[in-house]
UniProtKB/TrEMBL annotation:
Keyword Transmembrane helix set for record: no
Binding site residues for Ca(2+): D328, D331
Signal peptide feature range: none
Protein name, entry field: Hydrolase
C-alpha cells in the first residue's frame, strides 16, 4: 500500500511539474524580442528601439513619423492587452472578450458613442496627424505580432486578437475621459435627485464651501451662513450602508521658479493619482528625433500605451505635469415635450458569434437618459469634436514656458491643471485640455430652452493663467486653483476638498530654497493634518463614555500614540479614519437610503461633506440624530460600529488594526482580481499602507500616485521618474516588476534611462533610407 502511495504521489508531482513546464513554455513563446532586426514598409529611415535595465524604452529616429511607428512597436510588444482593454472600455466592446458579465458596462459606455466619435475625429484630422496615427497603429500590430505567439490573456479567454486601428488611439484618450470626468456628470445627477427629494436648501447645505481653500490668488468663496435643513421624521432607517467615497482621480503638482533653486532653473513636481493596476498605466520612454525645423529633440517621460504622445516629461528646456482640473465640463439638460428625440441601435458583440442589440436615445444636446421621472440629455465636453487631438505633441519641441502656453489652450485631452517650468527659471499654471465656451455652468439640470448648445461646440481659448508669481510658488491638487471670479465662469465639476492643496501650499511657504529631495519628501508627506479635529472628537467621545462606566482604555492609549500621521504602525490613525467614516454613514443614512431607492448614491458628494458635518456636530439638530437620545450617543454608536467592522475583518486584537495592514497597497492584475489563485504569479508584492486621502501621500489599497516626477530643465541628470509598476505586461519578462520596489519604498528612480542593455534595429523594408 505504501509503495503504491509513493508511486501515486510521484505521478502527481511529475504531472504538476509537466503542467508547470508546459505553461512556462507557452508563456515563453510569447515573450517579445529585445534584440535583433526588423523591417517595415512605413519607415523612411533606420531607427532603433533600445532598453535599459528597467526596460525604459529609448527610441531614436530621423522623424516624428518614424518615432510614432517605433513607439507603437514598443507599446505593442509590452502592453497590447492593456491597450486592448482601454479601447474596448471606451467603445463598449468588452463583452466580446468577457461575455455577458461585461454587458452592463458595455451598455453604459455605448451611451457615449465613442467608437463613432473616434472614427469621425480621425477622418477630420490633417494629413500629418493622421499619418502619425497610421504609423503608430502599424507599429503596434507589428510589435505585437513579432513574438509569433498569442499572449496568455487571449489564450485564457479563448479570444482572437483584433488589430489596432488609428481610431483606437482616440478611444484610449476617451478612456481617460471616463476615468477623470465621469464623476462630474454623476455628481450633478446625484444633486438633481437630492434637490427633488429635499429641495434647494439641502443642496446648498451639502455643497457649501469649506474653509479648505488654496487658490493661487488667495481668494475665498464665501456664502451667507447656510441653515441646517430639517430631515423628515417619518423616515425609518433599514440599515446603515457604508457611503464609500469615490476616489479623486486627480493628482498633485507644484513648482517653484528659478530664484528658489540653487541652479536658477525652475523645478516641477507631479504625481498623478489613478487606480493602480498591473501593468502600470504609464510607460517610460525617451524620444530622440529631428523636428520639422531640423532641430534635434530629446524628450523623456511617460506615455500612455495606446497613444503616440509623451504625457508628462521634459525635453531639458521645459518640463510639465498635470493634475485633473475638475472644472465643470458637463450639464444635464432637462428635455421638454417638444424636444426631438431619435432612437439609434447598436450591436454589442459577444463570444461565439452571439450579439446583443442596444437601443440609445439621442437628442440635439446629446445622448438621453431617463431618471428622476424625466428625460435628460447629457452635454459633455467629451462628446464634442475638439475633445481629442494630438496637439500635446507640440510640447516636445517647446523651449520656454511661453511656447507651451501658446499651444496649451488647444490640447485635446480631459481638462487638466498644467504646471510647466523652464530652464530659464520661469513657472506657470494654466488649465489645458478641452473646455466648452458655455458661460453658465450648472450644478443642477438646465432646461432645454436655456441650454447653450452652440457655445458647447466651441473650445474655450481664453483661459486664466498664473506665471511667475511674486512668491515664486505654484501648487494644484484637484481643488479650486483659479480666482473666485474665474470660478463663477468655469464652475465646479467635483473639486476635491482643498485640504491636500492647503497642506502642499503650507509646506511650500515654509521653505525658500528647494531641491529634488525636498520635493520628494513633500510627495511622501503623510502627516494627518486634516484628521486632527476628528482625533480630538473621538478622544473626547471616548473619555465621556469612559466617565459613564464604559471601558475604552485600549483605544484611548492608541489614540494618544497615534503619531499624527498615516503611518504603517499607527492603530490610532485607523481608529480616527474609520470613526469619521461611520459618523458619515449614520448622519447621512436616511438621505442615502432615499437615494438608493432611486438608484442613486451620496458617494459622488462625500468630498463636500466636511463643513456640513461639523455644522451638524456643533449645532446638534434633533432631526438629524434619528433614533439616538443625544449626539453623544450617536457618536458612541459611530465608534462602536467602526470597531465592529474592523474586528470583523481584521480580528478583535487592536494591534492588527495598524494602518499599514488595514490600508495595504495591493497592485493587482485584472485577471487575479477575478481568479485569486493567479495573484502570486501576476500581482505586485503587497506593501504596508503609507498614505491616505487628505494628504500629499495619497494611497489606498488599489489607488494612489501612479508615478512621481521631479525635474529641473537643464539639470535632468538629477530628475526623478518613479513609476508604480514595471514596463512589460508579460509575467515572464524581466521588466514585469522592474521599478515597483523603488516606488513602494519611496526611492528616487532617475528620469533619464540608464546604460542600454538591449537594442532592436527597425529598418525600412527595402533595407535602404528612402
Amino acid at each position: 500500500m505504501l509503495k503504491w502511495l509513493k508511486v501515486l504521489i510521484s505521478i502527481v508531482v511529475l504531472a504538476g511539474l509537466a503542467l508547470t513546464a508546459t505553461i512556462y513554455g507557452v508563456l515563453s513563446l510569447s515573450l517579445p524580442m529585445l534584440d535583433g532586426r526588423g523591417y517595415s514598409d512605413v519607415l523612411d529611415a533606420p531607427t532603433e528601439l533600445s532598453r535599459d535595465k528597467l526596460g525604459h524604452a529609448v527610441i531614436t529616429a530621423k522623424s516624428r513619423a518614424d518615432v510614432a511607428y517605433v513607439m507603437g512597436y514598443a507599446h505593442g510588444q509590452d502592453r497590447f492587452f492593456q491597450m486592448d482593454l482601454l479601447r474596448r472600455n471606451a467603445a463598449g466592446e468588452l463583452s466580446e472578450l468577457f461575455g455577458e458579465a461585461a454587458l452592463s458596462l458595455d451598455k453604459s459606455m455605448r451611451f457615449h458613442q465613442f467608437r463613432q466619435r473616434s472614427e469621425q475625429i480621425v477622418a477630420a484630422m490633417d494629413v500629418r496627424d493622421r499619418t502619425l496615427l497610421e504609423n503608430y497603429a502599424k507599429g503596434v500590430n507589428e510589435g505585437r505580432a513579432q513574438s509569433g505567439m498569442t499572449s496568455f490573456e487571449y489564450l485564457l479567454l479563448g479570444a482572437e486578437v483584433k488589430p489596432w486601428q488609428p481610431a483606437d488611439s482616440m478611444l484610449a484618450i476617451f478612456s481617460m475621459y471616463l476615468d477623470l470626468q465621469a464623476d462630474t456628470f454623476e455628481r450633478d445627477k446625484a444633486l438633481i435627485h437630492l434637490e427633488a427629494l429635499h429641495g434647494q436648501d439641502m443642496v446648498d447645505f451639502i455643497i457649501q464651501p469649506s474653509t479648505f481653500q488654496a487658490a493661487l490668488d488667495g481668494s475665498k468663496i464665501d456664502r451667507p451662513s447656510v441653515a441646517i435643513p430639517d430631515l423628515p421624521s417619518d423616515i425609518k432607517i433599514a440599515e446603515y450602508r457604508n457611503i464609500k467615497p469615490i476616489p479623486i482621480h486627480g493628482s498633485n503638482n507644484w513648482a517653484v521658479t528659478g530664484n528658489l533653486t540653487a541652479t536658477g532653473s525652475a523645478m516641477v513636481s507631479d504625481d498623478m493619482h489613478l487606480g493602480l493596476d498591473v501593468p502600470s498605466v504609464w510607460y517610460r520612454v525617451q524620444l530622440n528625433y529631428n523636428n520639422k525645423a531640423g532641430e534635434k529633440v530629446q524628450v523623456t517621460g511617460v506615455s500612455l500605451p495606446g497613444v503616440p504622445a509623451m504625457v508628462v516629461g521634459s525635453n531639458d528646456h521645459v518640463a510639465w505635469g498635470f493634475t485633473n482640473g475638475y472644472l465643470d465640463t458637463a450639464d444635464w439638460v432637462e428635455l421638454a415635450e417638444e424636444d426631438e428625440i431619435r432612437e439609434e441601435s447598436q450591436t454589442i458583440l459577444l463570444p461565439d458569434g452571439q450579439s446583443h442589440q442596444y437601443n440609445l436615445l439621442v437628442s440635439q444636446f446629446g445622448p438621453v437618459k431617463l431618471f428622476n421621472g424625466k428625460k435628460y440629455a447629457l452635454q459633455w465636453v467629451a462628446h464634442q469634436p475638439y475633445a481629442v487631438n494630438l496637439n500635446l505633441l507640440r510640447f516636445e519641441s517647446a523651449k520656454s514656458v511661453e511656447n507651451v502656453l501658446d499651444v496649451a489652450s488647444n490640447i485635446g485631452i480631459p481638462v487638466q491643471n498644467l504646471v510647466v517650468v523652464d530652464s530659464k527659471g520661469s513657472a506657470a499654471w494654466q488649465p489645458t485640455g478641452a473646455l466648452p465656451s458655455r458661460v453658465f455652468p450648472n450644478d443642477l439640470a438646465v432646461v432645454s430652452a436655456r441650454a447653450e448648445i452652440e457655445l458647447w461646440q466651441v473650445n474655450e481659448r481664453n483661459r486664466p493663467r498664473v506665471m511667475n508669481p511674486e512668491n515664486g510658488k505654484l501648487w494644484t491638487a484637484n481643488s479650486r486653483v483659479m480666482s473666485e471670479l474665474d470660478h463663477r465662469r468655469y464652475g465646479d465639476g467635483g473639486y476635491a476638498l482643498g485640504a491636500r492643496a492647503q497642506h502642499i501650499r503650507d509646506r511650500l511657504l515654509e521653505t525658500q530654497v528647494f531641491n529634488e529631495a525636498d520635493f520628494n519628501a513633500l510627495q511622501l508627506d503623510n502627516e494627518a493634518k486634516f484628521l486632527k479635529p476628528w482625533h480630538k472628537l473621538l478622544t473626547d467621545t471616548l473619555l465621556t463614555a469612559q466617565a459613564k462606566g464604559q471601558d475604552h482604555t485600549e483605544a484611548l492609549v492608541h489614540l494618544e500614540n497615534w503619531q499624527g500621521c498615516a503611518c504603517s504602525d499607527s492603530v490610532g490613525y485607523t481608529l480616527v479614519k474609520h470613526f469619521r467614516s461611520s459618523v458619515i454613514d449614520i448622519v447621512f443614512a436616511s438621505i442615502e437610503q432615499q437615494l438608493q431607492q432611486e438608484g442613486e448614491t451620496l458617494s459622488y458628494l462625500t468630498r463636500y461633506f466636511e463643513p456640513a458635518l461639523w455644522q451638524l456636530i456643533e449645532k446638534q439638530p434633533e432631526s438629524w440624530r434619528k433614533g439616538y437620545d443625544s449626539w453623544q450617543a450617536l457618536l458612541e454608536e459611530a465608534q462602536d460600529q467602526s470597531q465592529q467592522r474592523l474586528a470583523k475583518k481584521y480580528g478583535s486584537n487592536m494591534v492588527n488594526w495598524q494602518w499599514g495592514k488595514v490600508n495595504t497597497l495591493m497592485v493587482q492584475h485584472p485577471f487575479s482580481k477575478q481568479m485569486p489563485v493567479l495573484s502570486r504569479f501576476l500581482d505586485m508584492p503587497t506593501v504596508p499602507g503609507f498614505g491616505d486621502t487628505f494628504m500629499p501621500a495619497v494611497q489606498s489599497q488599489g489607488f494612489g500616485a501612479s508615478q512621481r516626477f521631479i525635474a529641473q530643465p537643464g539639470h535632468l541628470h538629477k530628475a526623478v521618474m518613479t513609476v508604480a509598476g514595471g514596463q512589460s505586461g508579460h509575467p515572464l519578462s524581466p521588466y514585469y516588476r522592474s521599478g515597483f520596489e523603488a516606488y513602494a519604498t519611496g526611492q528616487l528612480t532617475p528620469l533619464l534611462p540608464g546604460d542600454i542593455v538591449h537594442t532592436i534595429e527597425l529598418l525600412p523594408s527595402n533595407g535602404e533610407q528612402r
